[in-house]
Amino acid sequence: MVFASAEEFLQSAAPASAVCLITDVRMPGIDGLELQRRAGLKHPGLPVIFITAHGDDEIRQRALGAGAIGFLSKPFDAADLLGAIDLSVSRLTSAAF
To answer: Which domain holds residue 81?
Structure first.
């Protein structure tokens, strides 16, 4: 699913059934780091992957330190994104058992 904003995502029922959350760091309204925090409060364990053109080392460390499983800087290799998504699926699958 695609959402117009972080707020729209948080207000939807989607986080409960999501395999992962793919977001950017800079967005209008709630930024990606705040979205990661709020989504984690509502749905602990929801894997978060960042894709961004604004990924300095501090932001990268904050995102990964808060539990993000991927932080990809644009331009990125599609294989890296698929690897992060695979990791998300495997974490959720192993947590379900």
So the answer is: 6-96
Closest by CA position to 71, among listed 27, 41, 39, 36:
36
pLDDT one-digit tens code per residue, 24-65: 999 999 999 999 999 999 888 899 999 999 878 999 999 999
Among residues 30, 20, 29, which one has the least CA distance to residue 50? 20
Instruction: Indicate whether 1 belongs to any domain.
Output: no
For the chain, the domain total comes to 1
Rounded to two decimals, the pTM is 0.90
- In this structure, what CATH number is given to the domain that contains residue 87? 3.40.50.2300
